Structure formats: structure tokens, C-alpha cells
């Protein structure tokens, strides 16, 4: 993770009233069930919404740093993405998707009034802070000259409107989603080789990994690293295999590019030497 944006938390503002995005979503009746304010800053929205009878938990990497241990019906994330670098934005999208219940929704508010993009010296703190415009591939539920609010619904819960017959373009509602970003998502393999066997899948339908754009490949590798950490914590494997099947001769059976991340455990095979070289029998142990 890029460490050049170490002062992003200084953009948090102290307020004495509810934020504009929170007021809009409250008026629209979109704040439902158990709610998480992700990147809550000093926590004023958490305080006011709880006073109004809602159930809201606050998380902020700098001000309320205890990462949530459960999932939520609704996650709100206001003006966070605008002050983050692209890889930091992707990490937030993945973390928010993992914190949603299967039928949950998240709302991302982004600024639309930014004039200067890049690093600037913060007027109060006199430290370099970053800001940028953000466009997400999610439906917009509110927009004016200053603010836009996106509604995120997990990819496996969205209504299918296209006719393509591809299980990765349209994962069904019973598919367990591990995480999702703007460009890719991860699920557990339906026929796992080992416990925790995960697939990292680009959203654009493309049969070969090599035909993906560099941005799409980068998004998949970034997610691969993120999912590895999730699997390590959940399953405590002793190792991993990473593999991509390309073409019929490469063993590809679903013609939508995807990366296999397979946890490995001590003694899950008699002799693990050679790893993925064992895709061709008797070629694994080349040390003999």
C-alpha cells in the first residue's frame, strides 16, 4: 500500500450537525437495520443517527480504529474515497463489500465540487493532503453540483438484465461473495480443491487473462493479495497455489478469465514437491 498519503485523516471535519449525505439517505429511508459508518471521522453522524433511534457503529482507521468483527445491513462511506489514492480506494471498496450482509447495501458519497486534483497543503494542518474526483460503476441515487451518492449492491444480488449465459458475469444469489471492487470480485470455488479455494474474477467478460487490460490485470492481482490475507486469517493454511487456466489445452472450462487461489495444508498430499508442475503427471519432482 502506498505510504505517500499518510495525512488523509486530516481532511476529517468537526461538525455540530448531521452531514448532508446522511440527511439525504435518512430522508429517503435508505438507512436500514444494523448500520456501519465506514470512515466516520470524528463520529458526529454516528452520534446523531443513534440519537434518532438508528443502530449505527462507527469505524475510522485513525479515530475509531477497531475494525468491525461482524457484517451490517447498511454501510455508509461519506467523502472518504475523494482523499485516497486509487489503490487505497480499491481497498476501501473491498473492505466495505466484505462487511455487508448478503442482502445489504452500501452508499458512497463523493464530492462533485473539487477544483484542484492532487496534493495540496492543508490550510489548517499545513500538511500535504490528497484529493481527487471519483466515478464509480454503481447506480447514482442522488447528485447535485456538490455531491453524488452511489448505491452499491453486491454483484451476486443484482437483478440480471443481460442475456449472456455466463455464471461469472451473473453469479447467482446463493454464491458466497468474498469481496468486490469496482473492477473485480472474489468468490469461493463451487468445487474446491482445498478448504478456502477462491476465485478472483474480472467483471468484464473476457476469456483469457492475457486479453484483459493492464488496469483489469492489476485490479485482479491487487484483489488476489487482499483475498490471500483474508484466507490466511480464516483458514490458517500452510501455503498457497496460484493458477490461471487459459484455453482448452490449458484446462480452462469456464471461458471467463479467473485466477485460482488455493490454500495448501501440511500433508494434504503425500508429496507436494513441484507444486503446480504436477498438472502434468510425473513432471512435479524434477529434483529426482
Describe this structure in words.
By secondary structure, the protein is α+β, with helices and mostly antiparallel strands. The protein folds into 2 domains: 8-154, Rossmann fold, CATH 3.40.50; 177-279, HIT family, subunit A (2-Layer Sandwich), CATH 3.30.428.10. The protein has 4 helices and 13 strands. Helix 3 (86-98) crosses helix 4. The protein is elongated, with a radius of gyration of 21 Å. The mean pLDDT is 94.
Distinct helical segment count:
4
Net shape: elongated
Helix content: 10-25%
Chain-averaged pLDDT: 94
Topology, number of strands = 13
Q: How widely separated are the two ends?
A: 41 Å
| Structural class determined from secondary elements | alpha+beta
CATH superfamily of the largest domain: Vaccinia Virus protein VP39
Percent range for β-strand residues: 25-35%
At CATH level 2, the architecture of the largest domain is 3-Layer(aba) Sandwich
CATH topology category name of the largest domain: Rossmann fold
The value of Rg in angstroms is 21 Å
Q: Give the helices and strands as they follow along the chain.
A: HEHEEHEEEEEEEEHEE
User: Domains counted in the coordinates: how many?
Assistant: 2
Within the largest sheet, what's the order of strands? 2-1-3-4-8-7
CATH top level of the largest domain is Alpha Beta
InterPro entries: AP-4-A_phosphorylase, HIT-like, HIT-like_sf, SAM-dependent_MTases_sf
Pfam families: HIT, Methyltransf_23
Protein name: HIT domain-containing protein
Amino acid at each position: 500500500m502506498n505510504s505517500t498519503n499518510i495525512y488523509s485523516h486530516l481532511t476529517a471535519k468537526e461538525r455540530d450537525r448531521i452531514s448532508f449525505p446522511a440527511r439525504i439517505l435518512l430522508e429517503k429511508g435508505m438507512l436500514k437495520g444494523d448500520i456501519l459508518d465506514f470512515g466516520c471521522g470524528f463520529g458526529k453522524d454516528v452520534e446523531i443517527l443513534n440519537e434518532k433511534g438508528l443502530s449505527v457503529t462507527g469505524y475510522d482507521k485513525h479515530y475509531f480504529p477497531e475494525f468491525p468483527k461482524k457484517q451490517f445491513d447498511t454501510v455508509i462511506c461519506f467523502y472518504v474515497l475523494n482523499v485516497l489514492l486509487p489503490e487505497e480506494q480499491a481497498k476501501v471498496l473491498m473492505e466495505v463489500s466484505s462487511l455487508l450482509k448478503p442482502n445489504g447495501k452500501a452508499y458512497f458519497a463523493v464530492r462533485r465540487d473539487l477544483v484542484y486534483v492532487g496534493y495540496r497543503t492543508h490550510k489548517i494542518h499545513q500538511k500535504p493532503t490528497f484529493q481527487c474526483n471519483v466515478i464509480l460503476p454503481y447506480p447514482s441515487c442522488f447528485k447535485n453540483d456538490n455531491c453524488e451518492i452511489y448505491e452499491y449492491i453486491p454483484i451476486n444480488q443484482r437483478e440480471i438484465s443481460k442475456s449472456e449465459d455466463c455464471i461469472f458475469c451473473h453469479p447467482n444469489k446463493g454464491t458466497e461473495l468474498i469481496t468486490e471492487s469496482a473492477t473485480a470480485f472474489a468468490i469461493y470455488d463451487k468445487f474446491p480443491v482445498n478448504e478456502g479455494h477462491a476465485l478472483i474474477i474480472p467483471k468484464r467478460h473476457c476469456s483469457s487473462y492475457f486479453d484483459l487490460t493492464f488496469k483489469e490485470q492489476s485490479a485482479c492481482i491487487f484483489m488476489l493479495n487482499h483475498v490471500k490475507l483474508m484466507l490466511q486469517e480464516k483458514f490458517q493454511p500452510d501455503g498457497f497455489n496460484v493458477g490461471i487456466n487459459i484455453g482448452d489445452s490449458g484446462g480452462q472450462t469456464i471461458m471467463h478469465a479467473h485466477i485460482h487461489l488455493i490454500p495448501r495444508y501440511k500433508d494434504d498430499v503425500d508429496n507436494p514437491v513441484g507444486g503446480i508442475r504436477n498438472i502434468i503427471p510425473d513432471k512435479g519432482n524434477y529434483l529426482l
